[in-house]
Amino acid sequence: MNELLPFLTYCALMSGTPGPNNMMLVASGAHHGYRRTLPAILGMVSGVALLTFVMCLGLGALFIAWPALHAALRLAGTLYMLVLAWRLVGQPVALDRPPQALGFVQAALFQAVNPKSWLRAVTVASVFMPAQFSLPAGALTVSLAGAVVGFPCISGWALFGSGIGRLLSSPGRRRAFNAIMAASLALLALMLLY
User: Fold this and answer.
1) What is the pTM of this model?
2) What value, to the nearest 5°, has the Cα angle with vertex 105 and ends 8 and 154?
3) H-helix or E-strand spanning residue 139
4) Which residues cross the membrane (predicted)?
5) What is the Cα–Cα distance from 28 to 167, expressed in whole angstroms?
6) What is the Cα–Cα distance from 148 to 87, expressed in whole angstroms?
């Protein structure tokens, strides 16, 4: 319990606090509702779990050996988030044509360039790996436990967006919402760069 409680708390904090995933889920929830956002939620949870599993198996050693690889990944993630923010601003605001929902595969693959997901995976691999398990068993345990904790945390953001979506009954309100979400995502991207 002394090791489990800090780990679960860390996973809840990383999943529940604002970040690129959660900003995208608020926007998707607002435009599509929770049910159509669920594939993105499952994709994000699966992508983070897979990233954590691979990191726990030793991928983190590459970042120690080649720090430039970490810097390149951070830059790629920042640029991708800026592109997502730009696309969010440019999305159609017609109420009868909402933007396309983020799918499972897109959301899972986004974790490969999401700096917050990498930070979480590196921290779990370096701080929370259970010493009493074999390497694969420990990696699987923390990856699955993190997914179980993360699912309800990020679902809350999609539900919040779904609630906000009811207020976006005019193109002007929807345009303003998209601009706010895009600015938030761009700001997060730039903050993660430094």
Assistant:
1) 0.77
2) 30
3) helix 135-165
4) 40-64, 71-89, 137-164, 176-193
5) 14
6) 31
Contacts of 52 (CB under 8 A, 6+ apart): 120, 121, 124, 125, 139, 142, 143, 146
How many Cβ atoms are within 10 Å of 59's Cβ, its own excluded?
Answer: 15
In angstroms, the CA 141 to CA 130 distance is 8
Measure the CA–CA gap between 150 and 46, rounded to whole angstroms.
10
pLDDT for the residue numbered 87: 76
Q: Which amino acid is at 137?
A: A
Retrieve residue 37's tokens.
């956002």
The tokens for 58 are: 């030793």
Q: What amino acid is encoded at 86 in this protein?
A: W
Can you give the pLDDT of all 194 residues of the chain as single tens digits?
Answer: 567 888 999 999 889 888 889 988 998 998 899 999 999 999 999 999 999 999 998 876 676 677 787 677 777 777 877 887 787 777 665 555 556 778 999 999 999 888 889 889 988 888 888 888 888 999 999 999 999 999 999 999 999 999 988 887 777 877 787 788 778 778 877 776 66
- Residue 9 sits at φ, ψ, to 5 deg, of -65, -45
Q: Which of these, 44, 55, 38, 24, lies nearest to 120 by C-alpha position?
A: 55
Which residue type occupies 30?
Answer: A
Whether the Cβ atoms of residue 31 and residue 99 lie closer than 8 Å to each other: yes
Q: Provide the strand spans (E) within 33-175.
A: none
